[in-house]
Design a protein that fits this description.
Blueprint (H helix, E strand, L loop, with lengths): L1 H19 L5 E5 L1 H9 L4 H9 L3 E6 H9 L5 H8 L2 E3 L9 H9 L7 E4 L3 H8 L6 E5 L2 E4 L4 H15 L3 H9 L1 H4 L1 H14 L5 H9 L4 H10 L10 H22 L4 H5 L1 H27 L1
Parallel strand pairs: 1-2, 1-4, 2-3, 4-5
Antiparallel strand pairs: 5-6
The chain binds zinc ion.
Zinc ion binds next to helix 4.
GO biological process, one term: rRNA processing
Pfam families: Fcf1, UTP23_sensor
Family: Belongs to the UTP23/FCF1 family. UTP23 subfamily.
Length: 295
Amino acid sequence: MRQKRTKGSRKVMHLYCSAFGFREPYQMLVDSAFIQSCVKQKFDIQARLHDTLQGVVKPMITQCCMQALYDLGATAQEVVEVAKGFERRKCNHLKARPEEECLKAMAGEGNKNRYVFATQSLELRQALRKIPGSPIVYIARSVMLLEAPSDQTLAKKHQMETAKLHVSPEELAAITGKPLPAAPAPDAPTEADAAAAGAATDEPPKKRKKKGPKGPNPLSVRKKKAPAQDPSAGRPKKRTREDEGAAGEGAREEGRQGNVASMPTRGDGEARKKRKRRRKGGAGGEAGDADGGDE
Ligand SMILES: [Zn+2]
């Protein structure tokens, strides 16, 4: 039984902490009857409160509740001494009010100060259940109990959770609104391009994707693209010749400038032809000279 109770109260206080911002030490407002019952049962109040809430508790008493204890007279001297050990809470009631009224005022509409209420008053407990986020502790026979969260508390918790989950409809609209048009937009043009280019153009996009990141290739592609504007069927042959010629000239120029590596790779054909011509001419001249010399 006791293990079940401690586990249950831990769960309940976890709810108050997570949903309503309760923190240790829990500030507990006690009424006069609660203290009287504790003294009568000879409770170690601090230890009992700790067990009941499964956390550090800071018991407090309002001026009106203290006045109620004073009003009991000399018979309640021991109880008054215990209550004096608690922190006095100012309720700003100039004239002492009935305890229920005072504690109801302390709870206010939403228990903003996050008090735990320890009261033996049934009337007050019923009133506090209607205030979401108001933990209630009471003593039944010789057992100190933490009430299960009220329906109002659970409803408020659920309401806040749904509010957190759904964020705000405006943000949702903004977030979902942008990606929805943006996501289909890139897909649609690619499909349209593929359809317009033809059936066999499935490979080029892949090649583009793969070759895109590589640095040196696009540089050479740009030079070819600049003259060739329309990639049609018949024209590329002529342009390839022109491009080859341009590339050969470029290679020759580079070769003249001293870039030897590009010579054999690019301008092989024409370079060999001209070398051959030069060699032939040179050889013929030399041969002629030699012949002439011999003659
Ligand atoms: Zn008061």
